[in-house]
């Protein structure tokens, strides 16, 4: 019996809360693994910097694993590198990380203005999105992904960022205005190149660290600006923040995002109770369940999340590069067998 919807149609309807035949099999966070690299011939770190290799590895998440979407990039350092931050180079098994920072004063912020989104890795990612959209855009959801405004500010400002947020509000807001303006422009470029969903990954925008007042002041309004820009373009959004976001979910929901990705520290049933509008994505432990577990464990943990009402079964954070295709395929099949 033929499926009623294409994966693109099914995901779009499910994201809006409309009736579909079954759950889409998606991953909101990074998808690259060593086994996918071996299957496709596109390896990190080259696949971070070469659009053709990035595209080849991204599509392996669909062709080798079975995810019903494709997404890029595979890390959250391209934006900081774009603005001149020093990186620790990644390897075939490990993503790059930010080790040097470029903003200390308001003059430093001004010096970063006038950027060109066609340059450096930002341009590479946008070109890969175009390639993926040209090949799969009629069939599969095309996810573009970026670091969120708060975490980009931390990458630019370094260890001083949390102190500045707490005691130097004027500087903090000016840097957030800049990073948010960039995120909006970047989202628009991704959509122009074919993305139909934008994933905002803001790992250091931690409700656990900031508390409700600072979270509402320094995270919510900036997320809302990016989400609103995406809404104006008619594309969906997913927001991911690491850690136990349970108490922050009602505030995150106020951004208007279509979905919130939660990690393994969050109870799905409680998450569902704490939001009014956003769909919940998650929340299989990427280490203990998906990497170190086996298919039986993954089926058990998947069933727990499904029974608690998760809207999209997915990893609770980025997939560990050593995760096996078999384990990921098990999660995919659990999602695809679930009828809402």
TrEMBL record:
One GO biological process term: one-carbon metabolic process
GO MF terms, alphabetically ordered: dimethylamine methyltransferase activity; metal ion binding; uroporphyrinogen decarboxylase activity
Sequence ranges assigned to domain Uroporphyrinogen decarboxylase (URO-D) in this UniProt record: 6-338
Keywords (A to Z) from UniProt: Metal-binding, Methanogenesis, Methyltransferase, Transferase, Zinc
Signal peptide: none
InterPro entries (UniProt xref): Methanogen_methyltrans, Methylcob_mtaseMtbA, Mtase_MtaA_CmuA, UROD/MetE-like_sf, Uroporphyrinogen_deCOase
Cofactor: Zn(2+)
Highest taxon above the source species: Archaea
Protein name stated in the entry: Methyltransferase MtaA/CmuA family
Organism: Methanohalobium evestigatum (strain ATCC BAA-1072 / DSM 3721 / NBRC 107634 / OCM 161 / Z-7303)
